[in-house]
Amino acid sequence: MENIIEVKNLTKKFxxxxxxxxxxxxxxxxxxxxxxxxxxxxxxxxxxxxxxxLHPTSGELHINGYNPLHEHNKVRQSFGIVFQDxxxxxxxxxxxxxxxxxxxxxxxxxxxxxxxxxEMLKFVELWDRKDELVKKFSGxxxxxxxxxxxxxxxxxxxxxxxxxxxxxxQTRNHIWTYIEKLNKERQxxxxxxxxxxxxxxxxxxxxxxxxxxxxxxxGTAEDLKKQTGKDSLEDAFLKLTGDxxxxxxxxxxxxxxxxxxxxxx
Length: 265
Ligand SMILES: Nc1ncnc2c1ncn2[C@@H]1O[C@H](COP(=O)(O)OP(=O)(O)O)[C@@H](O)[C@H]1O
Ligand SMILES: [Mg+2]
Hints:
alpha/beta; Rossmann fold; binds adenosine-5'-diphosphate; binds magnesium ion
């Protein structure tokens, strides 16, 4: 299988704190690849580097054959992204959000752009809500709209950072169904992070488990279970990452550390 994502010895430091610690992995074209890890493991930081939003401290990477450090635009055309935090314009309608994005991605021809928007909104079952303001949407509708938006320019890769966080089981199920369909029908490569083990196991071809900035294990769900001698992915995960609490305070503590470092300068 040809690799569409290649990462070698990637490291990211924030003021001396190592958020991503010398990780290497690759993702094949058409593969669904999941990053699992406790809060603060470095998953979002990795996605931000892969998608040109952050500069790595060191390491080599290739996305769709391009180097994100030097070929920003080519890399950006290659992927769609659904961020961990919502990033839609609440004051625009669903259609307007996609139209804005389509123009941004160079879909200049109006008819073609609108056809594409229609196709994507139908795909995520929001076509009949296209003229409503996004601020009236539920969390699940916003997520679906973000997926449609991420696909508007027909990318090769879709990055999803915790796409189902905080959604009800029905909506989560719908979202994974869309993703699976895209992967099977269009050979879309999917790189995702999630906290939901069963979802990761159901949808991913391979899984990397990340902890404290490092990849501590990588393989199919079966590989990970075998490697740890556990029956479930959740037990394998706990064995690999320990059962200590990692609350959201990881980020808060880091924020404070940064603050102090700033005042010391
Ligand atoms: N811009 C930043 N400045 C300083 N520290 C950061 C920044 N972004 C993330 N971190 C820290 O890096 C670590 C990894 O964060 P993140 O990649 O968001 O983890 P995850 O997505 O796995 O929960 C955390 O300790 C976080 O506080
Ligand atoms: Mg994150």
